[in-house]
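Reopening this ticket.

The earlier resolution said the output was attached, but the attachment link was broken on my side. Pasting everything inline this time so it's all in one place.
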Amino acid sequence: MYRSLLGGWLCCLPVLFTAACTIPSEPGSSAPPPAHVLPADARALAYGRTTGEVIQNPELRDKVRALFGTDWTPASQGRGQLASGAAAYFEKGGPLRMVQIAGSDYIAVTGCVPSACQTLRVLLLIREGGSQIFARLDDGGFSHYYAYGSGGNQAAAAPPIVDSGLRALKSVGDPYPSAGL
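Inline output:
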């Protein structure tokens, strides 16, 4: 009898360990929001025709710098955590596109550090009207997420929104500038 009870408990150990190692989803988390690329139209050019023009647009310039905060300038200047600073990720821009994520339209702005376009990239999503801005900055294997705007928990909203937008853009081709341009 003792031996069969011990054998029964030993058989249950893998189940107990598996249950103990499962990490539950965060409360309120769900599937990534649906996203798709919209046909090209004039809305994509609302703030400029190039990545540089969009970043320097008077309506967005201060918002974009506030979005990245101290990461805007290089870490060598005693601020931020990015060696080259977020501004460098916009030196080489990709095509401006429109993407719809969870029913909201965003201007998608991509860029990269010219000397490392494959690993140092940025995706900036500007919600129509410019009230909300989200970004994903890929820093050599690490992704940093940024959010600007009012309403709700913007920081928590950034990763699923930006990642859904990036997946939609990648579904129609590489959204980032190529190293050869």
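Reporter confirms the inline version is readable. The chain has four helices and seven strands. The beta strands are 35-37, 92-93, 97-101, 104-112, 120-127, 133-139, 142-148.
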